[in-house]
Design goal:
30% helix, single chain, alpha+beta, 5-stranded antiparallel beta sheet, Ribosomal Protein S5, domain 2, Alpha-Beta Plaits, 4-stranded antiparallel beta sheet
């Protein structure tokens, strides 16, 4: 089974005077990748390299960011794959310390950076979640809240009717929808 991390984490190591700062982010969609990557670039503008790899929804991508080809992005991606990770973005920021590491040294350094970061976080089973929008009357609020008490409510909107957006595990969605159906005007599965 694919796994993901339980929380975002940062870890820093130093190898031959070069600093390697590794970031692991749990991501739910590809839009988060740009947001996290932009944050890192804004916070570390003088970094020599900002290499990354991600895996989400069966898609994967990596970048060496001007390191010699195959010495950063692919090693980062390989560590993620070897740990069966998904819904994950890993960015390694490097500050060059003046000593060249060579191709083998770079591969080992980027690999070590990611491995050490992963070792500091819990890996959990990745459960596919879906968002469901519920529209119901004020009279049904107790029934609805009882049924969804174990699930995350992402938003609540109170107007002429109540609209909740909830997050539920994919494998439980059909059962939850069936339970909610008699209390809701409308139920939409969100993308």
């Amino acid at each position: 089974m694919n796994k993901t991390i339980d929380k975002n984490i940062i870890n820093e190591i130093e190898i031959k005077k070069s600093k390697f700062i590794c970031f692991l982010f749990k991501i739910e969609n590809v839009l988060e990748i740009d947001k996290y990557f932009q944050e890192i670039q804004n916070n570390y503008p003088k970094a020599t390299h900002c290499c990354y790899a991600y895996i989400i929804d069966g898609k994967e991508k990596c970048s060496d960011d001007k390191e010699p080809r195959g010495t950063a992005g692919i090693p980062i991606l390989n560590v993620l794959k070897n740990n069966n990770l998904t819904n994950i973005l890993c960015v390694v920021v490097r500050y060059f310390g003046g000593i060249k590491l060579g191709s083998g040294g770079l591969i080992r350094a980027y690999t070590k950076s990611v491995v050490e970061c992963i070792n500091k976080v819990n890996l959990i089973n990745n459960v596919s979640m879906i968002k469901i929008e519920l529209q119901f009357s004020y009279d049904e609020i107790k029934n609805i809240e009882y049924i969804i008490k174990d699930y995350q409510i992402l938003s609540k909107n109170y107007d002429n009717q109540i609209i909740y957006i909830i997050n539920v595990p994919f494998e439980k969605s059909e059962s939850i929808i069936n339970k909610l159906d008699k209390f809701c005007f409308k139920i939409n599965v969100k993308e």
